[in-house]
Amino acid sequence: MGKKYTNLLTLALTGRNDNYNPFFVSRLKYCLEYASYCLKRIKKKNFLRFSVCDWGSEINLKNSLNLDKNTSSIVDFHEVEERFTKKIGDSNNRMFSTAIAHNVALRRANSKFLGYTSHDYIMNESFFENLYNFLTGNGYRDLKLDDSFIVIPRKHLPEQLFLKKPSFSYLSRWILRSGEVIGEHGSKHGGDGGAYITSNYAWSKIGGIEERFSGWGVMEYELFLRANYLGNWYDSSKFGVWQYKLPRGNAPVRNKVLEKNLNKNWFSLKVNPNGAFWGLSKLKVNTFSKTKYLQKENRNFNLILDPLKNYKKISSFNLISNISKLFNTPVQIRFKFISINEIRLMIIIKNIFKNTHLRSVNFIGFSNCFLPGFLAIFSPSIELHIIDDIKKTLKFNSKVKDYIIGSKVYERLILLSNFLKKVNHLGYFRPLSGNLSNNIEIFFKDFPKENYSNLLIVKSKILNNNDFNKFKKLVNKDIKNIDLIILEDCNSLMNNKIESLNKKFEVKKHFNNKILFNKKKYFSNKKSEIEKITNTGPVFLLFLFVNIYYYITFFKRFIINRILKKFIF
Questions:
Q1: Measured between alpha carbons, how far is 214 from 141 in angstroms, rounded to an integer?
Q2: Is residue 25 a contact partner of residue 127, using CB atoms and an 8 Å limit?
Q3: DSSP string, 378-421
Q4: What b-and-e string marks burial along 204-238, b requiring 16 or more CB atoms within 10 Å of the CB?
Q5: Mean predicted confidence (pLDDT) in 354-379
Q6: Closest alpha carbon to 440 in 478, 410, 400, 406
Q7: What would the mean pLDDT of 294-320 be, rounded to a whole number?
Q8: What is the pLDDT of residue 1?
Q9: Phi and psi angles of residue 521, each rounded to the nearest 5 degrees, phi first
Q10: What does the pLDDT average to over 193-216?
Q11: Which helix (H) or strand (E) holds 530?
């Protein structure tokens, strides 16, 4: 009879409760609990466990993480005591030994397949679903996986997405709907992976990771070469399996250590360079499983990175650079001019992002592609939802030809979609055209559901009485998810209607616009924050600059594309 395993797959990772990586414990907790959340949703029994080697923590990781009950049930901690790590650890690498620590976690796992990964990789529902089907042969039955080596490549999530820790439901939503985030495709040398998986049998044959590697780098390439002695290797992205790298942010201690502790090019010519006792198999290691641990540290788990970039410090140069990119992106979007009100709104949007965290900006009607285009460059991870009632916005009568309406839909929404692709906008984009009254409920239904995560920008002139009543009802229903509302170009009739929202919003007049601040967030002691958002300063010179610059770029592209190319070709 073959060996009995407790589950299909165990992923091994290592760590120590120190200051090596900012917010290490918070990041590990977030990734483990998110994985548990996703596993619960796909409902696969006896699929995955995590094996964590705690390498000499003074305060043990199990007692610092404060994992929830579901996550604790799938995590095993293997503690190598500090007194022992000081004997065998690398003195040049904080007495750490990367390979041995991983091997400790691998050797003590009892799964059909084992893999090693890092503490800061995101694994979502499709990752687990596709990986499960791959490992169980549900999709590819002729593959001999017992002798095969699987490289799981990674994609890099944007730092901006994690300035405020996203809820698990929102992170799943964002990954599922995002644009093409940067990743390593088609690795041929074994590197660039987020995880490396092979069978328990194969790990025992190759003896784990070469244990001379105490630092970082090289070891995955060396492991890849030795694994090829046994059988084939596969890039799991071919089967729809990707990991997502949590952005590291600013990590000065880690960066300094990395410079000094890059592994040497030790490439063994043996299948197993570590011998029979790899992974400290003779050492008695304390193992803890499925336990509610005693919390020994008071820790703020809300922060998971120290940003590399200061997102609150937005210079005039940064603003102009974004505008330049908007006008120079090779998409056939045209403007008659950029209005002074659009310049004011652009600055207000910039101020909002300096003072709060949004997930989505939602346009009910819009003049042109300037503001959505600016947002896509300024905040690439933001969601953009647009409902464009073209007949109302452009004041078409009932007799207008279908092809004219179709041309305008193409100019306003399809070219905008093309623009978003060209500037590498990563957030979800949902355009709706057609009658506002018929579609406004569908429009609201798909907004992110995190508290105070939505900004609404409304072209108030397209809201008739019926539309406004529907709008008001939907706003009241979703009040906890709305941060601010900007009503553009309000007339006296709209001002009267807005009074019905006064109980829930602090209303501020800004030229012809009304800005509505959710009172549950912007209560009376946050008046200074409201003033910071509404302070646009003098904008006339910026208005002139933007329009002059636009026409310079327009004529430059016209001369290059329409005149010079005719002579050249």
A1: 38
A2: no
A3: H-TT-EEEEEE-HHHHTT--TT--HHHHHHHHIIIIIHHHHHHH
A4: ebbbbbbbbbbbbebbbebbbebbeebbebbbbbe
A5: 95
A6: 478
A7: 82
A8: 40
A9: -105, -50
A10: 95
A11: helix 527-534
What separation, in Å, do the N-terminal and C-terminal C-alpha atoms of the chain show?
74
Structural contact between residues 361 and 375, judged by C-beta atoms closer than 8 angstroms: yes
Place of tokens 């990789």: 121
Strands (E), 269-365: 286-289, 360-364
pLDDT surpassing 90 at residue 49: yes
- The helix/strand/coil state of 78 is strand
Q: What is the pLDDT of residue 14?
A: 96
Adjacent-strand bridge partners of 197: 115, 150
Whole-number Cα distances in Å, 215 to 218, 261, 301, 448? 9, 5, 28, 41
**Amino acid making up residue 6:** T
C-alpha distances (whole Å) from 352 to each of 118, 347, 355 are 35, 9, 5
Q: Specify burial of residue 87 (Cβ count, 10 A radius: 0-12, 13-18, 19+).
A: exposed
pTM value > 0.85: yes
Helix axes 436-445, 465-477, angle to 10 degrees: 10
Tally of CA atoms within 13 A in the half-sphere of 541 that contains its CB: 5
Confidence of residue 568 (pLDDT cuts 50, 70, 90): low
Quick one: tokens of 481? 């998810």
